[in-house]
Design brief:
Elements: H1 5-36, E1 39-44, E2 51-58, E3 63-69, H2 73-85, E4 93-97, E5 102-106, E6 110-113, H3 120-133, H4 147-150, H5 152-159, H6 169-181, E7 190-192, E8 201-204, E9 208-211, E10 217-219, H7 226-230, H8 239-254, H9 258-278, H10 284-306
Antiparallel strand pairs: 1-2, 2-3, 3-5, 4-5, 6-8, 7-10, 8-9
The structure holds adenosine-5'-diphosphate and magnesium ion.
Length: about 300
């Protein structure tokens, strides 16, 4: 079975011994679920991150996706979140082995990713339609993490600060303050996808554009707008102007106060940058977005005073 080396390195880097064991058992596990669920394997998806995603077909030739993750809370939470969406706005969960981290999902064909589209106006419109389609109340029958739980990584980063850290401590403190401030109204809290960016929004000829791969976290709906705003930006000719365009279009369309949107954006993008530092991956571009969000926020505040 084809398990790319970079994928194996990523899994071992993240899950250590547990990851090694999971990788060693993966071919057997795939064969087991193929047999149990009557599936023919058509091959793995090439752009893998922390899950092994395979294209499969059932005995009637119906296409599905088999997704296997290292079994843990995040994996179970993803399954429960996909179930809560119930096929509306998000690809449907067909079967699952909750304890083993295995999901059989409806396949979105052709599965064009939102990142394949070039017209930014169209991209923002599709993103907003998808965002609207997956608004749900907080689940009552199960516990999910809240954005404030995620923000613990900022506290950890600040605690390890030694004066020459990548992100200034004042910036970290401000990000944390904005996250807490915008989590103060529990009546606004809802279920968030948690990772709604271009590669997690796919096109199905039959069903239109749908989300995949939710994290499942609770909080103010504005936090669910940030992964998209900072994604596929730096390769564009004028990223700061594009970021501003996204902020303006989104706040206009959703009637969201720009100060709230920008505060949540500073908070969450700084948190993402800290996660990237923790994972020893590229953090600079994400932090640059946080800095731009903060500049836009300050411009807004000055305009509000002078008007
Ligand atoms: N239901 C699906 N239909 C079609 N393609 C899918 C589906 N689920 C995942 N994929 C493809 O596999 C890629 C990785 O899957 P994803 O669930 O996003 O895993 P990861 O957690 O690794 O990001 C997606 O970007 C998409 O291209
Ligand atoms: Mg994904």
């Amino acid at each position: 079975m084809d398990i790319p080396v970079e994928f194996q390195q990523k899994i071992i880097g993240c899950f250590r011994e547990e990851g090694e064991k999971w990788l060693a058992a993966l071919p057997e596990k795939v064969a087991h679920y193929a047999k149990q669920w009557g599936l023919t394997i058509q091959g793995p998806f090439t752009n893998l991150s922390y899950n092994y995603v395979l294209f499969v077909e059932d005995t009637q030739g119906q296409p599905f996706v088999l997704k296997l993750g290292v079994p843990n809370f995040d994996c179970r939470n993803e399954m429960d979140t996909v179930r809560q969406y119930d096929g509306k706005g998000c690809a449907r969960l067909v079967k699952a082995d909750r304890e083993e981290g295995v999901m059989l999902l409806e396949r979105l064909s052709p599965g064009t990713m939102l990142s394949d589209l070039l017209d930014e106006e169209e991209v923002v419109r599709i993103f907003l339609d998808t965002w609207k389609a997956i608004r749900r109340e907080l689940p009552t029958e199960r516990q999910i993490p809240m954005i404030t739980d995620w923000a613990g990584s900022l506290t950890t980063y600040a605690a390890q600060a030694n004066g020459n850290q990548e992100i200034p401590i004042e910036f970290i403190n401000r990000a944390q303050e904005y996250i807490y401030k915008n989590m103060e109204e529990p009546e606004r809290h809802e279920l968030l996808h948690g990772d709604l960016h271009h590669e997690n929004i796919l096109y199905s000829e039959e069903r239109g554009w749908l989300a995949i791969d939710p994290k499942g976290v609770g909080g103010d709906p504005c936090f669910d707008l940030v992964s998209f705003m900072i994604n596929h930006l730096m390769e564009k000719p004028d990223p700061r102007t594009l970021l501003e365009y996204r902020v303006n279009r989104i706040s206009e369309e959703l009637h969201i106060d720009q100060i709230r949107l920008l505060e949540t954006a500073v908070g969450l993008s700084t948190l993402y940058a800290c996660w990237a530092i923790e994972d020893q991956s590229d953090w600079q571009d994400t932090y640059q977005c946080a800095v731009w969000f903060n500049e836009l926020l300050e411009e807004k505040r000055i305009n509000a005073i002078t008007l």
